[in-house]
Specification:
Number of helices of chain B: 13
Structural class of chain A: alpha/beta
Distance between the termini of chain A: 22 Å
CATH topology of the largest domain in chain B: D-amino Acid Aminotransferase, Chain A, domain 1
Helix content of chain A: 25-40%
CATH superfamily of the largest domain in chain B: ATP-grasp fold, B domain
Number of strands of chain A: 14
Distance between the termini of chain B: 35 Å
Largest interface: A-B, 65 and 55 residues
Oligomer: heterodimer
Number of domains of chain A: 2
Radius of gyration of chain B: 25 Å
CATH architecture of the largest domain in chain A: 3-Layer(aba) Sandwich
CATH superfamily of the largest domain in chain A: Succinyl-CoA synthetase domains
Strand content of chain A: 15-25%
Strand content of chain B: 15-25%
Order of helices and strands of chain A: EHEEEHEHEHEEEEHEHEHEHEH
CATH class of the largest domain in chain B: Alpha Beta
CATH topology of the largest domain in chain A: Rossmann fold
Number of domains of chain B: 3
CATH architecture of the largest domain in chain B: 2-Layer Sandwich
Chain lengths: 291, 390
């Protein structure tokens, strides 16, 4: 088992005919992901990368049986693409697109209420269940099937942590990038809940960063509801206060946004804190070895 | 993106939010003329992007054109240092000249998108003024909050609840509801990330008025607001950061150390800076080159490092996903071809198209220090910076 994506995932790619869409669809196919359809308005009826292309998500789902969507739609049109997928009843939408306006995402969140779609991202690397399914832009080869779940706000930092784990022979059940935006589709708590319920996940690595209060919410969950061990790292200890560090969410505002506050909350909740970003893998090994 | 108070007040006026009579001046002579025109007691307010102006001496109350001219003369051309600026301060190139108001009460009003609820939230307090942050810390119950459903917008009942909560009465209630409704409209129309009125005052003659105005905007939405984009005052920003943006590097933040960093991804870039400090060094900047795959941005990153005289070594840490290592490698080679690189460069490359990237670097014959992993890269960069001469 794994969470979010696995052997039964039938992937639809929104924006499949674009440059990034094409490149990463091929990488997903090479990894063994079943890509069953693509959507690009105006290009319906054709084939791209041996996959049928449709004009609308609704039609693509009906014809292909897709049950997850991976989005590469440009930022000005991405929220509309997500709304279309939600309206079509897509169970899982993974949005890679970076730079979507906050108010657009606010509308998406309003529309999501009472509907069943789970949204991952935007501004994220996607989701991979190693050896089973890759729905994202991460490098497949650095992953190893196993029992450690990874959830992170960062993309490339996650790749680094995963390669540390794999280098130590520690495999992953699923790695989820929830994205660096201020209004992510899924939060740490959403994903921790799934990992807690997943039989194949024995421990979880959580990679947070400065800004917002999602790590504190995660700490609350870890302290009260989580039975599985958690290793955590929070990036941005050396960031100057008040500065925006790239991710829309990574602005230190008030005390709750600081790395030190987040680390303290996670530590108090029982998470094991990695001393630096290069030793997250070692921290996991020591923790698993000791338990 | 931030804008100046006087620009925010123009937007407020367009949306029907009352502001004091006034105009902006960029010379003492102009200040004098405006003071003569408005008459009476005036407030001369330095226009800078930072808060904390009042306590820093950037706001003066004057009587008549002569005093106005003197105050403007004293403020214009200086650099204002407030708790929200660095020690070098920010330049004062304009002052806002406003009719002084007789203030009976100082309230606080703001609007932003709340992370946990993912909804816009209107915040109001009857304890407005200079110490609002302290109020929020010590007596958070004095900050009233009202979440807005974007599907139906800000409703009058929400405004009434907040207005009565601030102990307003009579005609003030309707005025306050109108101000809040307009502020919400402006926020949504212009893709604001923050709209703040502190203080929103009740004047001695019972009128509501925005004495200050702070607006900032979502950078990701600026593409659909050319009017807002045009308001940007680059003079108020860190020169290296302005330069970076002109070269297509949107995620550059100047820091205090001597190791130039080029990283893909904001989280990794922060972690690289953390790790450098862990290894005993300090980063000169935060630089996320993003995911667009062109060599130009890599070359321009090197231009940034050369433009920053403090940089004594460079660490390139790329874990390719969306970004491809071969493109980064080609960019590094181009940088070496186009300019003299006066500092040691440490590279740590992983991920998408790594082999091709390594082949390009090896074939070029350029002299970069290759690191085998994350830790190794940070350590080698710290060592290189210590030994470097520039």
């Amino acid at each position: 088992m794994s969470i979010l994506v696995g052997e039964n995932t039938r992937l639809l790619v929104q924006g499949i005919t674009g440059g990034e869409g094409s490149f990463h669809t091929e990488r997903c196919q090479e990894y063994g992901t079943r890509v069953v359809a693509g959507v690009t308005p105006g290009k319906g009826g054709g084939q791209h990368l041996s996959v049928p292309v449709f004009n609308t998500v609704e039609r693509a789902m009906a014809e292909s049986g897709a049950n997850a969507s991976l989005m590469f739609v440009p930022p000005a049109f991405a929220a509309d693409g997500i709304l279309e997928a939600i309206e079509a009843g897509m169970p899982l939408v993974v949005c890679i697109t970076e730079g979507i306006p906050v108010l657009d995402m606010m509308k998406v969140h309003r529309f999501l209420r009472g509907r069943t779609t789970r949204l991952i991202g935007p501004n994220c690397p996607g989701v991979i269940s190693p050896g089973r399914c890759k729905a994202g832009i991460m490098v497949g080869e650095i992953h190893l099937p196993g029992n450690v779940g990874v959830v992170s706000r960062s993309g490339t930092l996650t790749y680094d942590v995963v390669s540390q784990l794999t280098g130590l022979g520690i495999g992953q059940s699923t790695c989820v990038g929830i994205g660096g935006d201020a209004l992510p589709g899924s939060t740490f708590v959403d994903i921790l809940e799934l990992f807690e319920a997943d039989r194949d996940t024995e421990a979880v690595v959580l990679i947070g960063e400065i800004g917002g209060a999602m790590e504190q919410e995660a700490a609350e969950f870890i302290g009260h509801r989580m039975t599985k061990p958690v290793v955590a790292f929070v990036a941005g200890s050396t960031a100057p206060p008040g500065k925006r560090m790239g991710h829309a969410g990574a602005i230190i505002t008030g005390s709750s946004g600081k790395a030190a506050d987040k680390i303290e909350a996670l530590s108090r909740a029982g998470a094991v804190i990695a001393p630096n970003p290069a030793e997250v893998g070692l921290t996991v090994r020591n923790m698993l070895g000791g338990s | 993106m931030k804008i100046h108070e006087y620009q925010a007040k123009v937007l407020f006026s367009q949306y029907g939010i009352p502001v004091p009579r006034g105009r902006v001046a960029s010379s003492p002579g102009e200040a004098r003329d405006i003071a003569a025109e408005i008459g009476g007691r005036l407030v001369v307010k330095s226009q800078v992007y930072a808060g904390g102006r009042g306590k820093a001496g950037g706001i003066r109350v004057v009587n008549g054109p002569e005093e106005a001219e003197t105050a403007a003369h004293q403020l214009l051309g200086t650099r204002l240092v407030t708790p929200q600026t660095g020690p070098e301060g920010v330049p004062v190139s304009r002052v806002l000249m406003e009719e002084a108001s007789d203030v009976a009460r100082e309230l606080y009003l703001s609007l932003l998108v709340d992370g946990p609820t993912r909804l816009p939230v209107m915040m109001a307090s009857e304890a407005g003024g200079m110490d609002i942050e302290e109020v929020a810390r010590s007596t958070p119950e004095k900050i009233l909050r009202s979440s807005i459903d974007p599907a139906i917008g800000f409703q009058p009942f929400q405004g009434r609840k907040l207005a009565y909560g601030m102990n307003l009465c009579g005609g003030q209630i309707g005025d306050a509801v109108r101000v809040m409704t307009s502020l919400y409209q402006l926020f949504m129309d212009k893709d604001c990330s923050l709209a703040e009125i502190n203080p929103l005052v009740v004047t001695a003659d019972d009128k509501l008025m925005a004495l200050d105005a702070k607006l900032s905007f979502d950078d990701n939405a600026l593409y659909r607001h050319k009017d807002i984009q045009a308001l940007q005052d680059k003079e108020q920003e860190e020169p290296l950061e302005v330069q970076a943006r002109e070269w297509g590097i949107n995620n550059y933040v100047k820091m205090e150390g001597d190791i130039g960093c080029m990283v893909n991804g904001a989280g990794l870039a922060m972690a690289v800076n953390d790790l450098i400090q862990h290894c005993g060094g300090r980063a000169a900047n935060f630089l996320d080159i993003g995911t667009l795959n062109n060599t130009e941005r890599v070359v321009n990153s090197f231009r940034m490092f050369i433009a920053d005289p403090r940089v004594r070594a460079v660490l390139v840490n790329i874990f390719g996903g969306m970004a491809r290592v071969d493109v980064i490698a080609r960019g590094i080679v181009e940088a070496y071809q186009q300019m003299e690189i006066p500092f040691p460069v440490v590279t740590r490359l992983e991920g998408t198209n790594l082999e091709e990237g390594q082949r390009i670097l090896a074939a070029s014959g350029i002299d970069v220090i290759q690191a085998k992993d994350f830790y190794d890269g940070a350590r080698k960069a710290v060592e290189a910076a210590k030994g470097a001469m520039r």
